[in-house]
C-alpha cells in the first residue's frame, strides 16, 4: 500500500503477536500444568515453566485414568470420540450426497417437499429437541451405543445444500456423454459425480469431523456407562469429582489430548478447511 | 434453476433420499413435534394423568422472574461475547491483511482455536482463573481484586464471556480476513491518494465495505452464544453461583434434568426453536441478498 512506513509495520507485527499470545496462553498453561506435581498446583504454587512429570502424567492419563474409582483411561475415551466423529462425518456426507443427487438429477413427486423437510432441519439444533430425542433413542434401545451417539446428529441440511449447489454447476454434457457410453444413474454417480466431488467432500469432512469430535451435550445425556464416554464428557466429570481432590495435571493432559486431533486437522488441512468453512457458512 | 439433463427412474430417487429422510423424520421432526405437544400438556408429579392446558405453560413461564432473567442474561451474554470477539478479531484481521513477512504463519497460529471444543475451553479458563489455584487469579489478587468467580455472580459472568469470546476469535478472524481480501486494493489506494490517513481510511472505506460480513458474523456469533456456550457454562460454573450464569439453553437442560416440570421444559424448547427460526431466517435473507447483488 501507499505509506508503508516501518513504524506501522512493526505495530502490526506487535499486535499480531499479542493476539497469538492471547490465543495461545491458555494452552501453554495447560501443557505446563500437565507436567507438574498435583500438590504444587493445588497449593496455588504452579510454576509457569514445564515440570518434570511429563511421561508419568501422560502415561497415567492415557492408560490408567484418574484415581477416582470409576474413571476410564483417556485412550478409551478418545477411541469413543474418534468413532463418534467418524460416524457423524462420514454418515453426514454419505446420506447428504445421495439425497442431493436424487434432488438434482431426478424429477419425482414430492421432490421439493422432501428438499424443504431436509432444509428446515437447519433450524432444529439438538439443544431444542433434547428431551424428546432422548426419549426416542431410549425407546429404540440405543442409549450407550455408537448408533445412539451418531444417528440423531447425522442429518445435514448444510451438506445437502452444498452438494446440491455443486451438482448444479456440473455441466449437462457430462451426463449426456456417460449416457451415450451406456451408463445408468448409479454408474454415472459412482464414476463421474463422486470423483468430481472429491475436494468438496474433503473440505466438508474436515469441518464435520471437528463438529463430531467436539459434541458435548448429546453424549453427556445419552451415555451413562463410563466405557462409552467421549473425551469431552470425561473431562467434565474429572473436574467434578467428589470423592477426591481434582487431579489437575491429569485434567490438563486430557484437555491437551482432546485438542490434538481437531487442531491437527485444522492446521494440516488449513486450505481445505478455510474453503470448506466459507462455503458451508455463507 | 433446474437441470435439463436428468434421469428417469420411478423408485431410485426415493431410495436415495430415504436414509436422510428417515433420520430427519425420526430424530428431528418427531421430537420437535413431541416438544410442541408436550408444551401444551400438564402432567401430575407421578406422570399418571395428563391434561391439555393450552398456553398455561407459556404463561407461567413468562410470569416466572427466573425465566425472564435468563432471557435478559442470554441476550446480554450474546452481545458481550459477539462485540468483544468481533472487535478483537477485526483488529487482528486488519493487521494480518497487510503484506507482512510471515503473515501465513500468523494466520495459522490464529485460526486453530476454532477446533477446540467448548468444554475444553471451559476447563482451560476455569483452571487459569480458579480462585485458589489459578495462575491468573494470583495476579488479579495481587492487583487488589477480590477474585472468586465461584461466589461472585458478576465475576462468573465475566469469566464465561471471556472464555466464549476467546474461542470465537479465530472464526471471526477468518471471515474478516476473507472479507478484507475481497475488497479491491485500488479502493484503498484511491483513498490514500485523496489524502486519507490510515485510521480515516479504515472508518470511511474498510468498515462500510465490510458491513455485510460484520452483520453476518453478528448473527452467527449470537447463535453461537446461544447454543455453543453450553459446554463452557457446564464445565465452568454449572449455571452458578445461584442461577447467575443460567442461559436459555442451560435452563432447558437443567430444568429437564431435575425432571420437575416437563411441560415447562418443552415450552422453553419451543420458544428456543422460534428464536432459531428467526435467526436463521435473518441469516438467509442476508445470504440471498449477497448472492443477488
Concise overview:
Chain B: It is found in: Cell inner membrane; Cell membrane. The complex is a heterodimer of chains A (282) and B (293). Chain A has helices at residues 6-33, 38-42, 54-64, 74-105, 111-120, 130-139, 146-150, 157-169, 172-180, 185-196, 198-213, 217-222, 231-238, 248-268, 270-281.
Characteristics of this structure?
heterodimer, A: mainly alpha, MetI-like fold, B: 293 residues, mainly alpha, 73% helix, cell membrane (chain B), transport (chain B), sn-glycerol-3-phosphate transport system permease protein UgpA (chain B)
| Biggest β-sheet strands, sense, barrel of chain B | 2 strands, antiparallel
Helix content of chain B: over 70%
Q: Distance between the terminal alpha carbons of chain A, to the nearest Å? A: 29 Å
Per CATH, the superfamily of chain A is: MetI-like
Category from helices, strands and their pairing of chain A: mainly alpha
> And the CATH topology of chain B?
MetI-like fold
Number of domains of chain A: 1
Mean pLDDT of chain B: 85
Number of helical elements of chain B: 12
Largest sheet of chain A: none
Q: What fold name goes in the CATH topology slot of chain A? A: MetI-like fold
CATH C-level class of chain A is: Mainly Alpha
Structural domain tally of chain B: 1
Tell me the total number of β-strands of chain B. 2
